[in-house]
Prior knowledge:
With 541 residues, chain A is α/β, with parallel strands linked by helices. Chain A is built from 15 helices and 21 strands. Chains A and B meet through helix 1 of A and helix 5, helix 7, strand 4, helix 12 and helix 13 of B.
Amino acid sequence: MKVSRRSFLGMGAALATALGFGRFLPAAAEQPAVTGKILGASAKIGHQLRGGTFPAISSTIQKDVVIVGGGIAGLGAGYRLKKAGHTNFALLELEHQAGGNASSGRNATSAYPWGAHYVPLLTDESRAPKKLFEELGIIKGHDDKGLPIYDEYFLCSDPHERLFIEGRWQDGMVPNLGLTEDDKRQYSAFFALTDSFKNKRGRDGKKIFAIPVDKSSQDPDWLKYDTLSMKDWMDAQGYTSKPLRWYVDYCCRDDYGSSFDQTSAWAGMHYFAARTGTAANAAPGGLVTWPEGNGFLAHRLMEPIKDNIIPSTLAFRVKQDGARVNVDYLDQKTSEAKRISAKSVIVATPQFIAARLLDDKAIPANDFSYAPWVVANVTLSKLPAGKGVDLAWDNMIYDSKLLGYVVATHQNTEMVPLRTVLTYYWPLNHAEPKAARAEALARSYEDWRDIFLKELYAVHPEVEGHVENLDVWIWGHAMVRPTPGFIWGAARRKAMAQKPPIFRAHSDLSGISIFEEAYTRGVDAAERTLKYHKIPYETEL
Amino acid sequence: MPSMLLISVIIIATCGLVYELIAGTAASYLLGDSVTQFSTVIGSYLFAMGIGSWLTKYIHRNLLGYFIRVEILVGAVGGCSAIVLFMLFEHVTSFRLVLYFIVGVIGVLVGIEIPLLLRILRDRFEFRDLVSRVLAFDYLGALFASVLFPLVLVPYLGLVKSSFMFGMLNVGVAIWLLYAVKEHVHALHVHKAVAIVTLIALTFGFIYSEKLMTIAENGIYSNVIFAESTPYQRIVITKTQKDLRLFLNGNLQFSSVDEYRYHEALVHPSMAALKDPKDILIIGGGDGLALREILKYPSVDHVTMVDLDPAMTLLFSKNELLTSLNNDSLLSPKLTIINKDAFVWLRDVSRQDKHPVFDAVFVDVPDPSNYSIGKMYSTTFFGQLKSVITDHSIVTVQSTSPLIARKTFWCVNNTMESVGFKTYPFHVYVPSFGEWGFVMASLGNYDMPDHFVDGLKFLNPESAKLMFSFPPDMSKVQTKIQRLDDQALVRYFDQEWGEYLVY
Ligand SMILES: Cc1cc2nc3c(=O)[nH]c(=O)nc-3n(C[C@H](O)[C@H](O)[C@H](O)COP(=O)(O)OP(=O)(O)OC[C@H]3O[C@@H](n4cnc5c(N)ncnc54)[C@H](O)[C@@H]3O)c2cc1C
């Protein structure tokens, strides 16, 4: 309640830690074994697509629409069809549960994300996602100025971010320790510049950096930055400050899985300048998150269409047959190959899979490159602490290959949570994607576990002996990389071409893998389908 | 041998300076005002060294033996100095006396070292050489210590471990001399035994410094009669003569001498204003003291107490000293104790179709000193509270000191206003805390009661009226609003109490 006048102890405790009294811990007598396993996008099954042979078709059914792939794009398309009353569709999903990169897990301690874990306050251009958020009650209404009021339980709780640097945790993610005058000058110049981009419009009157990407200005003066790398751009602008460059590189790895020399400068600037969403009850730059991350959104999208979803199915061929389209898939439970004959199809898989399914040489696949990621969920019977500021939602580590971890229980309102799950993110950008992917898939569970535990204990020796479980998920093709020239290049433009009765929907088509892109692509494909089927609708785009 | 003795000069010089720095740092931490502490510690230390040097003229024979004994003594006293200072703080009436005594003893002993060493080495070097070397090594050691101390010792070892470690080094020098030197030392075995025992004792101190620190911390609460660490907090109860005190995580919760002021002010302004209050909710308050006041109203049918920690409610319903303080309130048949997180409980309850509705609510939780507790002062929490009250109900929230933490206090007030409450803030003087504040709030209007229940020691209509007036140094200020996603309150608290505590 009150701090006593001579509350030495309140200070004493802080002081003791500050002075390192807390260092000596008697070695934990017997360490309980850490359980766990590798999970992951069914790489083996998926690889069957590559030259695998499939059994003969054993049965055929008829549907109006088939959606292939149950990530946010596929689920969004299904959700949109259902809303329009167009319910005679099937959604095929490879995994035993839909969600794709927005998958999540749950144990006795908490739900936790396996991939996507937040959505920033929505921009004005994100019309379809905004509509969805209103329908789901994530946006509860609007104030008199028209600003959306977000559900406060979903807005990321304070403190949002902290950074582990020089042995202690600092507030916020921009390094602020031991900065030189020059660092500070470069910081303010950089942030002033990227902030000024937020309100900037191109000659066509559109925002230069918009979400969704395709609502951005086509002014060539800005698009040209796509051909540079973010690193080249920083060099050209004279941004030499080491902590600033670390920060920018971190942001590229965080959002795109690629370092700043592998990332297009346009995409890099997009990260800093496109998040212009506002709210009546949150500061700019705010975001929404849930214990299970975007798994929350995936589940809410799934609910109304759960009877349409056929999980554990590998679509292996999508072929036009007269006016109809045949979708052939492997039922993993029975190992039978089955066919759905549909009036139209939405292919909501990543580009490299779409290319195989459609067996269409016209579909560019090789220009799409994917970053492999590894995610670990660590269940702890004690909350991590550390010198410096309190545990935050996103806890980043300076100069580490890993990005850091997100705390699944952060949104709980409990005063003293005693257990938690940490989700560690690691984009494997140290090597070319192919080599990094092979290396990741070859590594045993024990090796992964030890790697993550080492990282954890290096920063949090206090949780040693409190790790109960550590699961690992290997994302071989986690997300498309906006390499220089990709976003505004020919391959993406070509891939976006829609060829009724087959429609495409996936965040790959945006070159930037985020919820708003995936969902918007899903709604777009669904509305094109409705139009093709001559069903009246009011566009949400 | 001579060169080894010179090396030991570096060691003892380092040790000597480290003890001085430790004493200065410990004194600044414990007493504050680091400039004063450092200058007085350094001054008295140097002065004591002078005394030590002067004393060496009385040593005639057996120089090496004396030197060894001094080393063991410096090691023992210097090695234990930090922990002794921490342990004795608040145990002794004049801590400064102890501080300067220890500094003095170490100073005298360290002062003896160099003159003695000069004389021991007198025959082995030319005088000119000797003085230049010994003093050069002495200053080198000092430089080494002054760099080592802030960069390595304080951040990585802490004061207590560092002092034990340098004690070990001093004794190590003595042991090395005992074994390496062929010269006759009187009672060699006794010296060896004493040195080794001291070394072992210091090593133990080094290893168990953590445990020792805990004991030292406990010592800071004068007379601990109860201490328990629950998964949620550390509960400590102390007693001196008539004064019984409860500390949670080191923060004072009440002193039995003046808690009536706090609890009467928390409870009666609302209870006396309500017409026949029946259903009461207490959030926190596991000590049963607010409850004691609430039970003075016969109209009360039922009290729900939501306190996170079962250990608290159990302790205050069993321990006789404590139950005599809360009048066995926790054993009242009108009471339901719910040992759950209040926010989670409130959210669950308000989602139920048929949920209880309370006439009065008391939020008596710790100050918003961190982001976890800060949640209980947020718009979301107060908004949730609205769903379990009526338009006439009154909510009272303990809201830290409006004098020391003015923005913090008004931030609670303004946050409640922002979710639609009308607020009626007030404050009271509680000697053990200082000026303390509460925010009373209702969806309707509040009228000051014109009389209170009998038997109150502090409140009557006159004293109540005074509580609602805020002099200029605590009057209302504009603040940000405490939201879950932006905990302005915690930052205000940190800043305001931080400034108050750093003196
Ligand atoms: C580690 C990680 C962290 C991320 N963090 C965020 C974040 O915080 N915020 C954010 O907005 N975005 C984040 N993302 C980006 C995320 O990719 C998008 O937000 C979004 O979830 C992508 O959805 P999608 O539908 O476009 O693609 P996907 O999720 O790739 O969906 C494709 C689906 O198709 C299925 N499929 C593939 N092949 C077949 C087949 N042959 N037959 C049947 N089904 C098939 C897959 O199993 C999958 O379910 C993250 C991604 C990863 C990997």
